[in-house]
Amino acid sequence: MNMKNQTSCTDDEPYLKIIKTDGFVESDYLSNLQKRICQNDKRIESEVRSILDNIKDFGDSALLEYNKKFDGVDNIQRLTQEDFKKAYDNTPNDLKRALNGAFKRIKSFHKKQLEKGYSIKTNSYELGQIVRGLSRVGIYIPGGTASYPSTVLMNAIPAKLAGVEQIVIFTPSQKNGILNNDILAAAYVAGVDELIGVGGAHGIAAAAYGTQTIPKVDKIVGPGNIYVATAKRLVYGVCDIDMIAGPSEIVIIADEFSNPEYIAADLISQAEHDVLASAILLTSSLSVAEKTVECISKQTQFLSRKTIIKNSLSSFGCAIVCKSLDEATFIANEIAPEHLEILTENPNILLGTIKNAGSVFLGEYSPEPLGDYYAGANHVLPTSGTARFFSPLSVSSFVKKMQFVNYNKRALEEVKDDIICIAKREGFDGHANSISVRFTN
Amino acid sequence: MNMKNQTSCTDDEPYLKIIKTDGFVESDYLSNLQKRICQNDKRIESEVRSILDNIKDFGDSALLEYNKKFDGVDNIQRLTQEDFKKAYDNTPNDLKRALNGAFKRIKSFHKKQLEKGYSIKTNSYELGQIVRGLSRVGIYIPGGTASYPSTVLMNAIPAKLAGVEQIVIFTPSQKNGILNNDILAAAYVAGVDELIGVGGAHGIAAAAYGTQTIPKVDKIVGPGNIYVATAKRLVYGVCDIDMIAGPSEIVIIADEFSNPEYIAADLISQAEHDVLASAILLTSSLSVAEKTVECISKQTQFLSRKTIIKNSLSSFGCAIVCKSLDEATFIANEIAPEHLEILTENPNILLGTIKNAGSVFLGEYSPEPLGDYYAGANHVLPTSGTARFFSPLSVSSFVKKMQFVNYNKRALEEVKDDIICIAKREGFDGHANSISVRFTN
Q1: CATH value of B2-37+247-376 in 3.40.50.1980, 3.20.20.150, 3.30.428.10, 3.30.420.40
Q2: Do B402 and A360 touch (CB under 8 A)?
Q3: Of A275, A396, B239, B394, which is most buried with the most CB atoms under 10 A?
Q4: Which residue numbers of A are catalytic?
Q5: How would CATH label the architecture of B42-241?
Q6: Around Cβ A351, how many Cβ atoms within 10 Å?
Q7: Of residues A20, A25, A375, the one with CA closest to residue B128
Q8: Contact between residue A305 and residue B429 where contact means Cβ atoms under 8 Å apart
Q9: pLDDT tens-digit map of A155-165
C-alpha cells in the first residue's frame, strides 16, 4: 500500500483531496477511514501467543533467549534512578529546561484529577469507597528511533500522582548497551523507579506474568508496534492495560476566518506520525480548503518526513467542505477524533456542541503539538473513534477502588425483610439464610 | 469435573477441607484456584466470531434468524417505559418495597461518585477536562432462571446518575412473549428507557454494531453465559465493556471470636452461585475452622441449591488455618477477592491493611448478601484476582472525559522554544513547524 501511494503521489499533485458534503460522498469517505483500523492478524496473534506462553512457563531463561533472538543482546539491562540521574546530567541545557517545563505543566494539569475516597455514615451503619494507587505499573517504551521522552512524561507523571509504588519502564536492550539518553533523562525528571531492558511481546509477557527476577505489574501502559499491541490485548485481564490504540487522527474545524497556513501546518504535524495517521479538515469555506491544499505543498517540501506526510495525507487525509459549521460539528462528532482543533472565529461557542473527542484545541494559538508536549493535558488519547466511550490517560487510570460496608445489628435488622424478599425471588435461599441465621435463637 | 465431585462428595463428608499454612500447601491451593478461570475456548470463540460478523454484515435479517434459531421466536420484542410501568403495577407489595428501598440506597451511595470537570485558567491560557455521560448504554440481562432484578438496579442506577441518555436492556425474547416481571419492574424503578428482545452473542453484536433498526451502543455491561462473555470480549474496542468477568469468590477473615454459624452461612451464600464459585475461610483459630465445617453441613441440608453448594465448596472452598491475622491478611491480598468479609473482633483495624478486594464487609452484621442487594455499594465487582487493578462498577464507568486547551499568542510564545526543542529531539520537524509557522512573517 505504501509503495502504491508513493508512486501515485507525484510532487505536482495536491496532497489533500477536497470533497463537498452531499450526505453520501462524505460518509463513503468516513467509512473508508475505518479501514485504517488494524484487523487482528492471526499469524501475528499466534506468534505472540507462543511468546507469551513461553515466558509464562519458563520465565527468565525464555526471556534471555528472546532478547538474544530479537535484540541481539546477551543480557537484560536493568537501570535505576542513579543511572537516570547520570543521563540527566549529560542532557543539553535546552532539553533539560524543556523537560522540566513540560513536567511542571503536566503535573499541574493532572493534580486536579486526584480522587478521594468517601463514606456515608449514620449511627448504625457506614459504607464508602477507598481509592488506592496501583502497586506496580509498567510503561512500555519502544526502542530505536520511535523512542520519545514525552511518552515517558505523559505516562509516568499521572502514575506517580496516583501513588503507584513502583513505576518501571520496559524497553528493548540495546546491542551497544547504550539506551536513548533523552528517555533516561525523562525517566529521571518523572521519577521512574527502574528500567528493564526487555521489549517486544516478550517484554509485555515479562511485565504481565513476571519471572523469577522480575515482579509482575498490575497495569501496562505505553505505545508499541503491532507485536506489542497484540501482546497487550492478549494479556488484558491478567493485568490491566491503558487502551487498545489504533492509528491516530486530527480533525480541524475552520471557517472563512481561519488561517490556511496554520491549518496546513497542523494537518501536516499529524500526518508526519505515520502513514496510517489521518488528518481531516472540515470547513465551511471552499476558499480556505483550496488555500490549505496550496500551503500543504509549500510547507511539506522542507520537512524530513515528507514521504510519510504525503502518503498519509493522500490515503487518509481530506478537506471536507461543509454547508455550515453545524454540519462540520456533526461530522466531527461522528468521527470522534483523537485530536480536534477548532480554528473558527469563535471556537468556544462550538466547544459546547462537541460530544466526542480526546483533546480539543481552541483558537489559532493552540496547535496540537502544544498538547503533545507541553500544555499539560495528556497526549495518550482514545484513537480511531473510541473517544465515543474512552477517555484520555489520567490519574484515574492508575488507581483502583475498593468498597466497604459496615452495618451494626440494628441497621441490618431494619432492612432484613427486604433483602430476604429479593434473595428468595431470585432463588437464592442461601443468601436469605445468611441474613436470617443472624436473627434466629 | 462436576460428576466427579458429585460422586466423591457424600453426605457424610465435610464439605470444606481444612489446611494449615506452611508456605507450600496454601500456595498449591491458591494456584489451583486460578484453574477456575476459564481459558478462551477456541471453538466457542470461532462460533461467536461468525455470529458477530453476520450481524455486522446483515443486521436485522441475521438477527431475526438467530432469534428464531436460538430462542425459537419469530420477532424481536421491544418494550418501553409504559410496559415497565405495567409490570411494576403487577408486582407484589413486598417486592415493590424491597426494590424501592434498594434503589434509594444504591442511588445515595453512587451519587457521591459524580465527577465534575475542571479547568486551570490564567490571563493567557486555559485548559481543563470536561466530563460527559455516554450517549447510549446496553445492559445485558440473561434470560430464564438466571434473570435477576438486582442486576438491573446495580447496572442502571450508576448509568442514569452519569447522565447516560439512553439505557437499553438487551435480553433474550421469550417464546410465550412473557418476560420476567421482576426484571421489568426493576427496569421501571431504575428508569431504563427500552428493552430489546435479543440475547446471546447475537444480542451483544446488535448492541455493539447496531442494525437498521437498533442504534449501536457506546458500552455494554452486565453478566452472561460463556457465549455472551466471549462476544463482549471480542467487541471490546468497537464499544467499551464493563469487565472480563470470571467466576466469583468470597474470602472471610476470622479469629477466635468469630461466630462459625455466620461464617458458614456466608461461605454457603457465595458457594450457591455456581459450581465455579470459591469460598475461602482464613482464620487464626483451628477450632473456629472445625466448627464452621460442622455448621456448613447442618445449614446446607435445607437449602434448595444444595448440590451446587456441595460442588463448589469441595472444589474451590477451603478453610486455611493461619499462624496469625497478619498472615491471613497477606493471603487475602494475594487472592484479591471479589468479596472480603472481616469477622474478627476489631474488623476496622484490619481494613487499613487490605490492599486488594472488590468490596469489604466489616463485622458480623454485614454479610455479603447485604451488599448484593441492598446496602448501596455496587455488586458488579472485579473477580478472580483482578481486584489488584480493576474497580467496582460505578458512575465513572458510564462517563467519558474530554480535555481542552486554549492558549493565546503570548502564552504560546512563552513556551514555543521548549516545544520546538522537544519536537526536534524526537525527529518531528513537522511538529516544530506547526509552532514556528505561527511566529514567522
Answers
A1: 3.40.50.1980
A2: yes
A3: B239
A4: 338-339
A5: 3-Layer(aba) Sandwich (3.40)
A6: 18
A7: A375
A8: yes
A9: 999 999 999 99
